[in-house]
Design a protein that fits this description.
The protein has helices at about 50-65, 80-90, 100-105, 110-125, 135-170; strands at about 20-25, 30-35, 40-50, 65-75, 90-95. It contains five helices and five strands, in the order βββαβαβααα.
């Protein structure tokens, strides 16, 4: 009888679970949801809208899976800084529009549901618009226009103030 030695067990590394991040943005806090590639909710959380909150959000999401894509509502307003942070960390960020009003009435409106819908928009391909990175020629032109407008406004105010001062402080005309 021949004995065969069992093959050594090889430990298979479990592949990192892919995930998609969705974020519903507000002025003071963000509600985030992480979904699996098939759309199952893995987790939701609410985090502060600060730089420390951005880091915490991404670390939380990476703890639930490998995040390569994110759908963010309001990448031009409340979500602009978060979008730039995620882009700097190598996450593809897509601008997500709000759900249709009839759809919102039918399904209900909650922040976690909005965050999940943002992630689902990325998964389904509805969200195609990439978030702006905040650098490049368009951003430079925007900053130039903003600076010029501010300078023109300051000059106009200075002229108006100077005219009022001269009129107020002039001695009365002699008869």
């Amino acid at each position: 009888m021949t004995s065969t030695s069992p093959l050594p067990r090889t430990r298979r590394r479990r592949a990192a679970r892919e995930a998609v991040l969705g974020v519903d943005t507000h002025r003071d806090a963000y509600v985030a949801a992480v979904l699996s590639p098939v759309g199952a909710a893995i987790g939701t959380d609410e985090l502060p809208a600060t730089v420390a909150g951005y880091r915490e959000l991404l670390e939380w999401a990476w703890g639930l899976g490998t995040v390569r894509q994110a759908g963010v509502e309001g990448t031009g307003s409340f979500g602009a800084a978060l979008s730039r942070y995620l882009l700097a960390q190598g996450v593809d960020v897509f601008d997500v529009n709000r759900m249709d009003r009839t759809d919102r009435r039918r399904r209900g409106k909650t922040d976690p549901l909005d965050a999940q819908n943002a992630a689902r928009a990325v998964l389904s391909g509805r969200a195609r618009a990439r978030a702006k990175s905040g650098d490049g020629p368009v951003q430079i032109a925007r900053l130039y226009k903003l600076t010029k407008g501010s300078a023109v406004k300051a000059r106009t105010q200075a002229r108006a103030t100077g005219t009022v001062k001269r009129r107020c402080c002039m001695p009365p005309a002699s008869p």
